[in-house]
Amino acid sequence: MKLTQILPLLAALLLVNPANAQTPAPAPAPAPADTAPAIGQVLLTPAQTAHILKELEKVETQIGQGRGSIFAAALTKFREALASDTAALALYLDCYKLEHFERKNLKQSDFMDWRDRNEARLKDDDFKKALLLQLEFLVLSIQAQDIKDSQKMGPLVTSLQTFLGKAITAVQGATKHTASGAVEAKDSGPKGGNRKGGGGGGGGLGGDITGTLRQSVSGSEFASAYLLDDHLARKEWEYRPLDVGGIYSKVILPYYLAEKPTELPAQWDMRINAEVAMRKAIMSETEFNLYYKEEGPRMLWEKNNYLVANNVNAVTALAEMLKIIQGNPNHPDAATWLKDFREIVKNVSEPEPTAPVEKTIGIQ
Questions:
Q1: Based on the domain organization, do 207 and 287 belong to the same domain?
Q2: If you count DSSP H runs as helices and E runs as strands, how many of each does the chain have, helices first?
Q3: Is 177 within the bounds of a domain?
């Protein structure tokens, strides 16, 4: 809370509770003429401080209850809409209508015109699938907000991994490769709508699953309609459903590091495989080969560097890092890897034993 917000509260509390004011603290001695007085200085007695802190605790409880009520109402509707793609689409239309028409005092006919213009897109199977996935990830994001104990993150981490598998499969199904290796995305006709990125919060209406799931769910139509964007504030979370690297680095890997460190190498392999599978789906064959030539060794280096830094299978990881350097001398990162690897080896090496100093006895 800002000082400008706190000061009126303090004044009100002191006026309402004069018993806590007691004897005011003696006025400070006048400052020397050449010294400017402190600006905004507030002096409180211990009793006043204790009372204010108690009142703030009450306010904090009320804020928490209000936030919880908002999440509870949203979760009820969202879970109902997850029952089918038809239910998800119906909720999407309700949210879109509320956010872009009713809150702007526009006519019902304006919304009907928008829906008619986008009829083909709203019936597109990939668009409805994108809504379901976006809604599912939004539910996971809400559930994550108040989890503080890493042990309690286990079920959510499992759900995240399951979600990523479904999302990548959906992306793969929404694109196809020609015989020449080029990518052809499904096309459901011209884009419509009166809002940029109107397809559930990103990517435009229609079968653009990748575009929709690359956007943050905090900015989706579902979150906007239920005023959730400011409440989705957990920092140890990734809000973009297709950000594989972010999901693993912010949520999955920290969980395994804290609770199941021996499984970290396998989790890193899952992260790399997921990233590669998604890229392969959305890139042409030539693009993917160029991507994998650079990013493949880079991801392996990141994995083993992480394991060494956290002392998980460190010796094996060091050996893998050496292989990466040896096998990729022309990689753009090769010189940096070599420099960093030397420093790592120097830091983890045991000091060489010093030779004992021989003592001689002089005869006088």
A1: no
A2: 15, 2
A3: no
